[in-house]
Design brief:
The complex is a heterodimer of chains A (235) and B (191).
Chain A: E1 14-23, E2 26-36, E3 41-45, H1 52-59, E4 67-72, E5 75-76, H2 82-91, E6 93-96, H3 108-118, H4 123-136, H5 152-164, E7 170-174, H6 182-199, E8 202-206, H7 210-213, E9 218-223, E10 226-229
Parallel strand pairs in A: 3-8, 3-9, 6-7, 7-8
Antiparallel strand pairs in A: 1-2, 1-4, 4-5, 9-10
Helix pairs in contact in A: 3-4, 3-5, 4-5, 5-6
Chain B: H1 10-20, E1 23-24, H2 25-37, H3 44-56, E2 60-66, E3 73-78, H4 80-91, H5 103-113, H6 118-142, H7 145-170, H8 172-180
Antiparallel strand pairs in B: 1-3, 2-3
Classes of the chains: A alpha/beta (235), B mainly alpha (191).
Chain lengths: 235, 191
């Protein structure tokens, strides 16, 4: 399944404007703005503590900003109820974190099927779809293994499969290669971006690694809680 | 993208290609372009000038002449001296380029000295680096193993530049303060 993009060509799929967020006295975001169009891959870069992960959490509705707003397909996240935001995260958003965060008690196949099961898909169908995604991510051989029995690279590919199994409109990837060596990181990025492009999902990719950011269509830099989109010099 | 083999090593690369078997000039060019030339193939002028130099140096010899539709085609073979030369070249480490004469550093210093925004200069460069990195990444994801390795070589170097850009951006205030105090310049020299 792919997402039609025609309804989103003129307006961003996801739009954050003037986001501010403090943790105690420490400002994490200080007026950050970011627009993401349907199907595009945006790298959010910045040094440690710059606010890039907080920005991702606000965009995904995990963290509420102190000021500013996030609109997804025209709706403001902060005006939704908790249940609506949870449903959105289940159906429209996919997540890949630095350490996979797979459920250790479940097999890799069950982990990938989990978001479908939570959305009410029957076990047999959920596991069939999960198996197809594991094959697409080239890790069919670990389907019956638990996360503790697979390598870091395999685990992260399982995490990517889990993020994409519901064919979300937006995938949020927070340092998805941060715990991997360079070669495994490259494989994960290739598979993640290929899969996202084929389903039409947008990707918000938080990374501090330029080689990872180079898989994106454009980059936004976060410095001191503010976003800065760097445009190429006129030639 | 720059050619991975520096121009100065075309001669030794030819010697290495000839070590397998004698070849014609056009065949050497084709092999070189396929394996090493990437987006910058050799000109025929470079090919024949290089072969002439190798012949003169006794590192190759004419192995045979065949009539063709146009001019006669010479086949070249490596000599024992040529094998020794390529062996020495292969075992000699390349000098790591330290890039101490760095144009970007000069631009940063000059922009600070003239009251311009050095952060903008770094950001413009950063965007250009990432643009090239995106191109290389696209090429890598659709290319064969040779493409992947060649692009990785360039990508790792560009990434090192970007780290420098990031670190320098974080230290611009410090550098500006240093430049205002001639006696405490990093090189210790007063301009």
């Amino acid at each position: 399944m792919t997402h039609p993009t025609t309804d989103d060509t003129d307006r961003p799929l996801l739009a954050a404007t003037g986001l501010r967020k403090n943790y105690g006295a420490t400002p994490a975001l200080d007026g950050a703005t970011l627009h993401v169009r349907a199907g595009e891959i945006v790298a959010v870069m910045g040094s440690s503590g710059s606010g890039k992960s907080t920005l991702l959490h606000c965009l995904a509705g995990i963290v509420q900003p102190d000021a500013g707003e996030v609109r997804y397909r025209g709706r403001t996240l902060s005006t939704m109820s908790d249940a609506e935001r949870s449903a959105l995260r289940r159906t429209d958003f996919g997540f890949v974190f630095q350490f996979g965060q797979l459920v250790p008690e479940l097999t890799c196949l069950e982990n990938v099927a989990l978001p479908l099961r939570l959305s009410g898909v029957r076990r047999r169908e959920a596991e069939q779809r999960a198996a197809r995604w594991l094959a697409r991510l080239e890790v069919s051989d670990v389907a019956g293994k638990r996360p503790g029995e697979v390598s870091g690279g395999q685990g992260q590919r399982v995490a990517v499969a889990r993020a994409l199994v519901t064919t979300p409109r937006v995938v949020f990837a927070d340092e998805p290669t941060g715990a991997l060596d360079s070669l495994n990181g490259e494989q994960v990025m290739r598979l993640l971006t290929e899969a996202a492009r084929s389903t039409g999902a947008a990707v918000v990719l938080v990374t501090h690694e330029p080689r990872v950011a180079a898989y994106a269509d454009r980059e936004v830099v976060v410095r001191d809680g503010r976003t800065r989109e760097i445009l190429l010099a006129e030639r | 993208m720059p050619c991975i083999v520096a121009p100065m090593s075309i001669a030794q690369t030819f010697l290495g290609l000839l070590e397998g078997s004698p070849r014609h000039g056009y065949e050497l060019k084709r092999l070189y372009d396929e394996r090493f030339g990437q987006s910058r193939p050799l000109h025929y002028g470079q090919v024949y000038a290089t072969l002439a130099r190798l012949l003169k140096g006794g590192l190759i010899q004419v192995d045979g002449v065949e009539p063709g539709a146009g001019p006669e085609r010479k086949r070249y073979a490596i000599t024992a001296a040529g094998v020794t030369d390529v062996e020495r070249w292969l075992n000699q480490p390349e000098k790591p380029d330290t890039y101490l004469q760095n144009t970007l550093y000069t631009k940063v210093v000059l922009s600070l000295l003239t009251g311009r925004n050095a952060a903008d200069i770094l950001d413009i460069q950063r965007a250009e680096h990432l643009r090239v990195m995106r191109e290389l990444t696209r090429r890598k994801t659709t290319g064969d193993l040779a493409d992947q390795l060649i692009c990785d070589f360039a990508l790792f170097h560009l990434e090192a530049d970007l780290r420098w850009l990031e670190q320098t951006a974080a230290r611009l205030d410090q550098l500006a303060a240093t430049l205002r105090t001639p006696a405490s310049r990093p090189d210790g020299n007063v301009p």
